[in-house]
Write a structure and sequence with these properties.
mainly alpha, 7 helices, 0% strand, elongated
Length: 99
């Protein structure tokens, strides 16, 4: 969890996380999900979207820049993921911050 929280902007794979914990991929995924209640990938996406939301409210970075700063390689994927998790688009979130 600490590694994800500190390195969310980098490319993080499940294999990398499992190796850091000296576990097999299957065991790591199972234990992480049991302990956290969500999969490691879902946790990573939550962290990235939370940080993106903060940047949308507190910075003047473009949405594309925010996507990149938060570890998303594809802006369209970022926008879809943001809307799915927040219920509004990244543009709507930014506008709401400045009302």
């Amino acid at each position: 969890i600490h590694y994800i929280d500190e390195n969310y902007a980098s490319e993080i794979t499940l294999n990398d996380l499992a190796k850091l914990c000296t576990m097999s991929l299957t065991n790591f995924r199972r234990i992480f999900t049991t302990v956290c209640g969500i999969s490691p990938i879902q946790y990573l996406l939550d962290v990235r979207i939370r940080r993106a939301s903060e940047l949308l409210h507190q910075s003047s970075y473009s949405i594309a820049e925010i996507a990149q700063l938060c570890g998303f390689k594809d802006v369209e994927y970022f926008c879809r993921t943001f809307k799915k998790r927040k219920g509004i688009t990244a543009s709507q979130a930014r506008k709401a911050a400045f009302l």
